[in-house]
């Protein structure tokens, strides 16, 4: 029953409204095709691949190549459905009507959409799709990875064609000279693809779907990530213009926390966001959004986070929000926070608050700026007031592991004060009872009420 529901949804995702019983016919055919594919019938697969190649050639005679991958353009998907249906009706007269309609569903997916993984793209519960090999597809649901055995590509060549079709409308290249693609789709989803030989087992594609319904404060509270008390604490910190660094591993919830923090920013402040791929969904009325751009095949035209941070400083920002600090821009962010641009947020990949500070040091030192280590530590300690460390537990739950205050230096090291800590027994973020020092001074300066 679940398989038939999946197939019905797969057909409905690409069939236009008002096609009568063709959805049922498509489901029946898709069911047979899945059964035959699982049985490993090479003849069935070969017939379909040959048909797909013929239809692709005819489409390319009628349309521009970059129209062959716009799965988020509903109107174009319907137009391609009509074009493919017309080609099949004109050129594939030996096919029964029901088979032509069913083939049309598959061809729209394979030529215009994401191919066999299109149902996973359409599934709102799937947050990430991982194609490790043409016959090895995994997804992330509710923070946990699971294999999808009933979905597979016909060959590595089909996976590679998908990567090439993703790159084409984005004016990007993925080939032997440029075997790695890191891009953002028009809907905000992130795609990273790697060809063979760097990917030893064949083309690898990872798609992180863009969530249009980012968890807000109510969602984080319902999920157990934040409590009423911790929300009041963070609100005071943001209103007092504390500079906050959100750290954690991959998919630990850093961007979600950043979005939640941004909801505390007063509506009369000018906010500039800088990201590699636009994921933040700020609700303030005065927001300027920046996104980086990679260089072309010759390496020209790149616009880095560092370039955008420097530009933002000239645009009268009240707050600068950097989606992720990962390289040369680290020093610019530190200096901006120390020269009157406080109250900004940034994220950083690190396992803990102390690891995050050490990584900031390494980023600056790797660039060879010649700054003495103690002078650098003084600047870092002065630049950030608070570090929020996020973690993803083994069962997929995302939690805040600790909230740490940076209160200057102590001898040769940072003086860190853990104010909140995750308690595994109660599954709650609890105050440690340690009184804040630096934050209290900021609260007094801004005369914030609780």
Describe what you observe in this structure:
The protein has 450 residues and is of the alpha/beta class. The protein contains 15 helices and 15 strands. The protein has helices at 2-12, 22-38, 42-62, 74-91, 97-111, 118-122, 156-167, 217-222, 228-239, 254-262, 305-312, 329-337, 353-366, 373-383, 438-446, and strands at residues 126-133, 136-141, 144-147, 180-184, 190-194, 204-208, 244-248, 271-275, 287-291, 319-322, 345-349, 386-392, 398-410, 413-423, 428-431. The protein has a 9-stranded mixed sheet with strand order 9-8-10-11-7-12-13-14-15, sandwiched between helices. A 6-stranded antiparallel sheet has the order 3-2-1-6-5-4. Strand 2 (136-141) and strand 3 form a beta hairpin. The longest helix has 21 residues, at 42-62. The protein is elongated, with a radius of gyration of 26 Å. The termini are far apart.
Compact overview of the structure:
By secondary structure, the protein is of the alpha/beta class. It has 15 helices and 15 strands.
Helix/strand layout:
Layout: H1 2-12, H2 22-38, H3 42-62, H4 74-91, H5 97-111, H6 118-122, E1 126-133, E2 136-141, E3 144-147, H7 156-167, E4 180-184, E5 190-194, E6 204-208, H8 217-222, H9 228-239, E7 244-248, H10 254-262, E8 271-275, E9 287-291, H11 305-312, E10 319-322, H12 329-337, E11 345-349, H13 353-366, H14 373-383, E12 386-392, E13 398-410, E14 413-423, E15 428-431, H15 438-446
Parallel strand pairs: 7-11, 7-12, 8-9, 8-10, 10-11
Antiparallel strand pairs: 1-2, 1-6, 2-3, 4-5, 5-6, 12-13, 13-14, 14-15
Helix pairs in contact: 1-2, 2-5, 3-5, 4-5, 11-12, 12-14, 13-14
């Amino acid at each position: 029953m679940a398989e038939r529901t999946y197939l019905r949804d797969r057909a409905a995702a690409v069939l236009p409204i008002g096609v009568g019983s063709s959805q049922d016919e498509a489901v029946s055919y898709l069911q047979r095709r899945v059964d035959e594919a699982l049985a490993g019938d090479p003849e069935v697969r070969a017939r379909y691949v040959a048909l797909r190649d013929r239809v692709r050639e005819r489409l390319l005679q009628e349309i521009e190549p970059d129209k062959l991958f716009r799965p988020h353009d509903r109107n174009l998907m319907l137009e391609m459905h009509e074009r493919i249906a017309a080609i099949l009706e004109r050129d594939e007269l030996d096919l029964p009507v029901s088979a032509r309609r069913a083939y049309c569903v598959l061809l729209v997916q394979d030529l215009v959409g994401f191919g066999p993984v299109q149902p996973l793209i359409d599934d709102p519960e799937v947050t990430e799709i991982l194609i490790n090999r043409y016959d090895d597809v995994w997804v992330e649901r509710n923070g946990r990875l699971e294999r999808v055995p009933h979905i597979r590509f016909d060959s590595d060549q089909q996976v590679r064609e998908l990567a090439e079709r993703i790159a084409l409308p984005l004016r990007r290249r993925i080939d032997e000279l440029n075997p790695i693609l890191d891009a953002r789709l028009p809907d905000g989803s992130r795609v990273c693809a790697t060809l063979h030989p760097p990917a030893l087992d064949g083309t690898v594609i990872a798609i992180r779907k863009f969530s249009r319904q980012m968890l807000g404060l109510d969602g984080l509270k319902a999920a157990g990530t934040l409590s009423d008390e911790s929300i009041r604490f963070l609100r005071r910190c943001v209103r007092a213009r504390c500079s906050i660094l959100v750290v954690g591993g991959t998919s630990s919830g850093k961007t979600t926390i950043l979005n939640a923090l941004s909801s505390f920013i007063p509506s009369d402040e000018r906010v500039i966001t800088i990201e590699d791929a636009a994921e933040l969904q700020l609700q303030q009325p005065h927001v300027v959004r920046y996104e980086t751009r990679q260089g072309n095949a010759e390496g020209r035209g790149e616009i880095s986070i560092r370039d955008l941070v420097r530009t933002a400083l000239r645009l009268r920002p009240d707050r600068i929000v950097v989606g992720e600090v990962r390289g040369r821009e680290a020093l610019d962010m530190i200096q901006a926070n120390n020269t009157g641009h406080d109250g900004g947020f940034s994220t950083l990949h690190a396992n803990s608050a102390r690891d995050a500070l050490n990584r900031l040091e390494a980023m600056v030192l790797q660039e060879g700026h010649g700054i003495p280590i103690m002078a650098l530590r003084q600047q870092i300690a002065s630049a950030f007031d608070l570090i929020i460390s996020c973690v993803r537990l083994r069962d997929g739950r995302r939690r805040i592991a600790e909230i740490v205050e940076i209160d200057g230096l102590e001898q040769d090291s940072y003086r860190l004060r853990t104010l909140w800590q995750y308690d595994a027994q109660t599954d709650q973020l609890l105050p440690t009872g340690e009184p804040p020092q630096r934050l209290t001074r900021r609260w007094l300066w801004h005369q914030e009420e609780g």
